[in-house]
Design a protein that fits this description.
Largest sheet: 6 strands, antiparallel
Oligomer: single chain
CATH topology: Aspartate Aminotransferase, domain 1
CATH architecture: Alpha-Beta Complex
Strand content: 15-25%
Length: about 130
Amino acid sequence: MKKQIAKPVAAGEAGQNPVDAYLAGVPEPGRSTLERVRAAIRKAAPAGATEAISYQMPVVRYKGALVGFAAFTKHCSFFPMSAALVAQFAEELEGYSTSKGTIRFPLDRPLPARLIRKFVKARVAQNEARKKK
């Protein structure tokens, strides 16, 4: 596994939201890139979604894990937490390095906000469908 470049943060450290604290530990240009990713996630996430740190990375939860993101030494990653969605959006992910549950992108260039919104909306639908069962 690649090494994250932000130091792990305890919830509430220095009175900060743990995701704010995580981002404060990410050097530029990764910090600005992840802030843009976070903004796109927040815009697409429904009311009631919450932020947390899980597995030493920021995640958004809504009826379960929704998506996550992190900075590494040479790239940033977006975690849609669904291999099925990575496969579903494969055409739109051409040019990005992907694996089952990870989309990697340059430290200085976030994923397009419209693509992040698609993933978030699709994950909300998955989580809501799972909760109804």
